[in-house]
Structure formats: structure tokens, C-alpha cells
From TrEMBL:
<keyword id="KW-0732">Signal</keyword>
<keyword id="KW-0964">Secreted</keyword>
<dbReference type="GO" id="GO:0015889">
    <property type="term" value="P:cobalamin transport"/>
</dbReference>
<feature type="disulfide bond">
    <location>
        <begin position="167"/>
        <end position="210"/>
    </location>
</feature>
<dbReference type="InterPro" id="IPR027954">
    <property type="entry name" value="Transcobalamin-like_C"/>
</dbReference>
<dbReference type="Pfam" id="PF01122">
    <property type="entry name" value="Cobalamin_bind"/>
</dbReference>
<keyword id="KW-0406">Ion transport</keyword>
<feature type="binding site">
    <location>
        <begin position="403"/>
        <end position="405"/>
    </location>
    <ligand>
        <name>cyanocob(III)alamin</name>
    </ligand>
</feature>
<feature type="binding site">
    <location>
        <position position="434"/>
    </location>
    <ligand>
        <name>cyanocob(III)alamin</name>
    </ligand>
</feature>
<feature type="binding site">
    <location>
        <position position="247"/>
    </location>
    <ligand>
        <name>cyanocob(III)alamin</name>
    </ligand>
</feature>
<feature type="signal peptide">
    <location>
        <begin position="1"/>
        <end position="24"/>
    </location>
</feature>
<comment type="similarity">
    <text>Belongs to the eukaryotic cobalamin transport proteins family.</text>
</comment>
<feature type="binding site">
    <location>
        <position position="412"/>
    </location>
    <ligand>
        <name>cyanocob(III)alamin</name>
    </ligand>
</feature>
<feature type="disulfide bond">
    <location>
        <begin position="27"/>
        <end position="268"/>
    </location>
</feature>
<feature type="binding site">
    <location>
        <begin position="154"/>
        <end position="158"/>
    </location>
    <ligand>
        <name>cyanocob(III)alamin</name>
    </ligand>
</feature>
<keyword id="KW-1015">Disulfide bond</keyword>
<dbReference type="InterPro" id="IPR002157">
    <property type="entry name" value="Cbl-bd_prot"/>
</dbReference>
């Protein structure tokens, strides 16, 4: 279970890493829709009551950055973070090699509520130390790994989150720590295989911009500026014809990063409109996705928490009762071929007919129940469940492997519970190294 916490962040990154597609579509910032923003805000707030497992710090962060609040519900969620998530992280600190990503998100969530971080402690091996001390130690472990490898213990997304959390909390980030990230940008290490990880570039951009804003990183100021410029150009070059940067699920962080790095709002308007269009079509039904696009659509970023004062906040967000929606299963069946490719390259094929509109998870559960030799196990993440074991074989972060999912050769940008089967297709589940 403890490895799950670090795998949570790995799953998050891998899910939305896709090749970027260049576009030169001009920006137009017209059409900001307050009604849509309120609707998204309420969707996030309602998700607090539907959370399974641990409370989500990313959701809390987005709610706190927002211009609209329901302070009572946010306070209730803060208590859950301070108890349930806190206890789980404490257990993980003793047993996992690195939980820097989740620890950083927890830090940002508390900071967004103006919580005194010096009062938050973890006790490991009978020694009590503050949250920020543990985060600094986690980052040192990540940096030490980079001394003999171009990859941290976890990944550069989590590494960037750690830098951002320390920086926004008023902690001077060790030059050696930030320099490792600068070098990673310079040498284009922020990739998943051959794919550009746009969300990782975005998080690195926000982290390094925060470091630049502190004014402490003067020894290599030119290299820092060059890295920030490379990140900005990478994000802009990855904008598709429809306005999305990378894909639908990396655009929110990309826009946040561009705004944080000083891009004019007009430069991001096409991407904002793309997110609004998809939000209206319910593409962003996953709370994790909403938590990343909402700040961007409000022209804010995670850097906002650095100077957040929590004074005179709006408290007008009210959740109206809604009638439950019953979705009846479709009578139409579609055929799905499932291919499992193990780490050795051995492949096995299975077929199953599922109701149109079923989730991939439902299709896999149905196939498993037919007892034809297909088996799988899943674990939880901030984005929802993900595959951990298939046909008895693990894809472990410690071995730098994961189960790569594709449909008819195209990598999935959604998790197994979010991806819907709308037509006959071939799903490939491949044990992949990174």
C-alpha cells in the first residue's frame, strides 16, 4: 500500500503525457464565462462528498485558489487532510523510498488555507520533525539520485512539485536542487520515452518561476532565464489546432504555467476557450482534471498560494440540491479485443462484448469474470484507479515500469474508470519501461 502513494503521482504523470503537436492559432480572450466557472467550482465542491479513500489535496488547492468559496465545506475537507491524509503520509515516510509528490501537494493544500506549516509534524522512528523539514529531506534524496542518473527517484513532475511547494512556503530552495531541474530542462530530460510530458514542463515552469521571483538564484540567473524561456517555447509549440496544449488533460497546467511565467492572457485565450468548450461537453468530469483547469480559467496558478492571505474571502458558494441521474445501460453491444503484452514481449489476446458506453474498467471486470485466463489488480491514485498487476505480472515504479494503455494504437489520455467504450476497438495493455 505504501508504494501506492508514490505510484499515485507516477500514474498521474503517465496518464497525460502525450506527444505535442505544434500550432500557430492566434489567441482571442473573449468569452470568459462566470456561469461556467461557478458550475465547475460547484462540481469540485460536490466531489468532496463522493471521495473514496484519501482526501485529494489537489481538489482542496483548487477550491482555495478559486475566487468563490464555501468556507464551511472547505474547512471540513481541511480537517480530513490534516487527519486521514496526514496519517497515511506519516506511514509512507517510514516505508516508501519517496513520497515527495504527495508531500508537496499536501504542503500546497495547507498553504492555500493559510495553515501554519511550522505546526505540522511527522514522527518517524521516534523523531518528530516538521512537514517542511521532511519535504526538504525528500528533495535531497531526489537530488542525490540525480548525482549519478539523469532521473530522480520518482520523476521530474514530482521533483518540480517539491521545488514549488518549498518555494511558495517561503523556504529558500537549495541552488543544487533547482540547478538539477534547470539542467533537466536544458538536456530535455522531461520526457516519457519519446513523448513530451507537457504537464511536467508546466510544473517545472511554475517551480522555476517561483525560484526566479525570490531573487535568490543569482549565481546562475542566465541559465534559469534560459530554462524558463525553453519551457515557455515548448508549451507554445505544443499547442494544437483546437487550442489544447499537449492534450485536453495537460492544458490546465500548461496555461497556469504560461500565466505564471508572465505570458499575457491573450496568448492563452485559445487554450482557455478549448478548455471551456470541453468543460461544457463534460470532458472534465474527473475532479482531478477540474482541479487543474479551474485555476487556469480564473487566470490564476499554483503560485497564487505564495501570497495568499485568506482575508475577506467570498463565502457565497451554495450547493443547490440536485436530482440523482440514473444512467441505464445501453442495449447496444460493442466488441472489444484486449491485448496484454508482458515485459518479455509475449502477447495474449482476449475478446469481450460490452454495453456501449461502458468504462474500460467495467470491460476489464467483465472479461476477468469470464475466467478465460485474464486477471488484473488495480490501485488507487489521485486520478482514480489504475492497473498495477495484469495476468500476475507487476509493473512497478521501483523497476521504472508501468502498464501503458492504448486504443487502436493511440495512447489513452484517461484512466480506466474514465475512458468509455463507444465503439469496437482493440485495447492494448503493455508492460512498458520509462
Amino acid at each position: 500500500m505504501r508504494s501506492r502513494l508514490s505510484t499515485t503521482m507516477l500514474s498521474w504523470v503517465i496518464t497525460i503525457c502525450l506527444l505535442a503537436f505544434a500550432s500557430s492559432k492566434p489567441c482571442d480572450n473573449e468569452g470568459s464565462n462566470n456561469e461556467l466557472l461557478l458550475s465547475l467550482n460547484k462540481d469540485l465542491l460536490r466531489s468532496l462528498g463522493r471521495q473514496e479513500g484519501l482526501p485529494n489535496p489537489s481538489v482542496h488547492l483548487a477550491l482555495r485558489i478559486s475566487s468563490y468559496h464555501n468556507l464551511a465545506k472547505e474547512s471540513e475537507h481541511l480537517i480530513r487532510l490534516n487527519t486521514q491524509l496526514h496519517n497515511d503520509i506519516q506511514n509512507s515516510l517510514s516505508s516508501s523510498p519517496s513520497v515527495v509528490g504527495l508531500l508537496a501537494l499536501y504542503t500546497l493544500a495547507l498553504k492555500s488555507s493559510c495553515y501554519d506549516l511550522n505546526t505540522v509534524t511527522f514522527t518517524v522512528s521516534d523523531t518528530s520533525e516538521t512537514l517542511l523539514t521532511h519535504l526538504k529531506k525528500q528533495m535531497e534524496k531526489e537530488k542525490e539520485r540525480l548525482a549519478y542518473s539523469h532521473r530522480p527517484l520518482t520523476n521530474y513532475y514530482q521533483y518540480s512539485l517539491g521545488v514549488l511547494a518549498l518555494c511558495t512556503s517561503g523556504i529558500r530552495v537549495n541552488d543544487h536542487v533547482s540547478n538539477k531541474l534547470i539542467k533537466a530542462v536544458e538536456h530535455q530530460y522531461l520526457k516519457q520515452g519519446d513523448a513530451e510530458c507537457i504537464d511536467t514542463y508546466a510544473m517545472a515552469g511554475m517551480a522555476l518561476q517561483c525560484v526566479k521571483d525570490t531573487g535568490f538564484h543569482v549565481r546562475n540567473a542566465a541559465e534559469l532565464d534560459t530554462a524558463l524561456d525553453k519551457i515557455k517555447q515548448k508549451l507554445l509549440a505544443s499547442r494544437r489546432a483546437d487550442g489544447h496544449i499537449g492534450n485536453e488533460f495537460s492544458t490546465g497546467l500548461a496555461v497556469q504555467a504560461l500565466l505564471a511565467m508572465g505570458s499575457p492572457v491573450a496568448e492563452c485565450a485559445a487554450s482557455m476557450e478549448a478548455m471551456r468548450t470541453d468543460a461544457r461537453s463534460n470532458t472534465y468530469h474527473n475532479p482531478m482534471a477540474i482541479s487543474q483547469i479551474l485555476p487556469a480559467l480564473q487566470q490564476k496558478s499554483y503560485l497564487t498560494v505564495k501570497n495568499k492571505a485568506c482575508l475577506n474571502e467570498d463565502d457565497t458558494l451554495v450547493l443547490e440540491p440536485i436530482d440523482p441521474v440514473v444512467v441505464l445501460p445501453s442495449d447496444t453491444k460493442v466488441s472489444v479485443i484486449v491485448e496484454v503484452v508482458t515485459s518479455s514481449g509475449e502477447a495474449a489476446l482476449y475478446s469481450v462484448d460490452v454495453a456501449k458506453g461502458s468504462s474500460l474498467l467495467e470491460a476489464l471486470e467483465l472479461l476477468k469474470g469470464r475466467e478465460v485466463g485474464f486477471m488484473f489488480e488495480k490501485e488507487s491514485s489521485l486520478w482514480g484507479p489504475f492497473l498495477s498487476v495484469v495476468n500476475g505480472e507487476q509493473a512497478r515504479q521501483s523497476d521504472r515500469r508501468y502498464w501503458h494503455l492504448s486504443s487502436d494504437g493511440t495512447a489513452l489520455s484517461q484512466g480506466i474508470n474514465d475512458f468509455k467504450i463507444e465503439a469496437a476497438q482493440k485495447i492494448t495493455i503493455k508492460n512498458t519501461s520509462y
